[in-house]
Amino acid sequence: MKNIIEKIGPGPLVAAAFIGPGTVMVCTLAGFNFGYDLLWAVGLSILITVILQEIAGRIGIATGKDLGELIRSQESTWIFKGIQILLVFAAIVIGNIAYESGNLTGARLGLEVFYTFPEWKIAGLSIETGNLIIGLLALFLLWFANYHLIERILIFLVIGMSFSFLYTALALGPNWGEIFEGFIPKINSENTASIVALIGTTVVPYNLFLYASLAKNKWKSSSSLSWMRWDIGLSVFLGGIVSMAILVVGNFNQSESISNAAAVAKGLEPVFGNAGKYLMGFGLMAAGLTSSITAPLAAALVICGLLGKDQSTQSPPMRWSFLLIMGFGLIFASFGIRPVQLITIAQIANGVLLPFISIWLIWVANQKKWMGIHQNPKWLQIISILIVLLTFLLGIRALSSVFNWNLF
C-alpha cells in the first residue's frame, strides 16, 4: 500500500485545480436550472480531460520537457514562436491573475458560513480581510513548501472537499432513476450554453501545462507511464464524481436565484438545515483555497518553462512568479476590484488557446522523433480529431461571451 501511495503522483493537483469556485457555480447552476439532465455533459468533460491530460503527462515523461520548454525549444521562426509564447502568456499568466481574485473570494465566502470577516476602511478604501488572510496563507505555502508538501496539503483539502459535496448529495436523497436518466444526452437551445460551460470549466488549458511539468519531475522513466495513467485517470474521475455531486446538490437548492457563491451554501438550509449549509460552506472554502494555490503554481511553471528558468518551488524565478500572480490576485480580491479588462483578455486568449494547444498537444504526441514508441496510437488519433472539433466549439463559445455574438 505504501508503495502504491508513493507511486501515485500529482494527479490530485489537477482535480484540485479544476474544482474551484467557478466549477462549483457552473455545476450548481446546471443542477438548479436543469435538474439532472446535464450529468452526461460532466461525464463527457471528464473523458476529454483524462485523454488530454494523459497526452500531456506522456509528453512530459517521454521528452523530459514540459509544454512551455517544448514551445521554447522547438525549431520554428521567431515570429511563430513569439506568437505562441504571447498567446500562452496571455491565456495562462494574465488569466490566472484575473481568476485568482475569484478563487480567493470563493474561499472567503465559504468560510463566512462559519465566521464573518471584518471589513477594514483605510483612506476611503474597503479591504476584505478574509480574502487577504486566505491569500497570504496560500502564498506562505507556495513560498516555503516543496512540491511534495504542497501535493499532500492539496490531497488533504481535496479529500475534505470531496466528502463535503458527496455526503451532502447522498444525504439529500436524490432520485436515482432520474440520475441515471441524466446520463442520456439531451441538447436544446436552452441548455447549450450550460453544456459548453460544464465542459469548459473542466477542460482547462493551464492544467495541461501543470500536469506535464509535474509528471516529468515525478516520473523520470517511460516505464512509469502506467502509473501516470492510473494517477491522472483516477484523480480526474474522482474529481468528476465530485462535480456530479455538486450538480445533484444544485437541484435541491431553494434559493430564488443563484447569483453568487454564497447562495450555493445558504440555499440548502431550508431542506437540509445547518448541516447542509456548513458542509457546502467547507466545500466551497476548500475549492477556493486549492485553486488559489494551483493557479499561481501553474502560472509560475509556465513562466519559468517559457523563459528556461529553474522550476523548483524555492528558486527565485518561481518565487517571483508566485508573488506576481498572488500579488495582483490579492490586490483585486482584498479591495473588491473585479478585473474586467484582464478577464476579457483571458477569455479571448483562452478561447484561442484551447483549440490551439489541443492541436499542438496531439501533434507533438504523434511525432515519433520526440515520443518514440510512446506516440499516439491510431485509435487515439481519431478520437483526438473529435476532441479538437469540440475545443473549437468551446473556443467560439468563450469568444462569443466576450463579443456578445449570441451564437449559442
Automatic annotation (TrEMBL):
Molecular functions (GO terms): cadmium ion transmembrane transporter activity; manganese ion transmembrane transporter activity; symporter activity
Signal peptide: none
UniProtKB keywords: Membrane, Symport, Transmembrane, Transmembrane helix, Transport
UniProt name for this protein: Divalent metal cation transporter
Superkingdom assignment: Bacteria
Gene Ontology cellular component annotations, sorted alphabetically: plasma membrane
Subcellular location: Membrane
Gene Ontology biological process terms, A to Z: iron ion transmembrane transport
Transmembrane segment boundaries: 12-32, 38-57, 78-99, 122-144, 153-172, 192-211, 232-252, 278-308, 320-337, 343-366, 378-399
Membrane-topology descriptor: Multi-pass membrane protein
Main localisation: membrane
UniProt cross-references to PANTHER family, sorted A to Z: NATURAL RESISTANCE-ASSOCIATED MACROPHAGE PROTEIN 2, SOLUTE CARRIER PROTEIN FAMILY 11 MEMBER
A Pfam family this chain is assigned to: Nramp
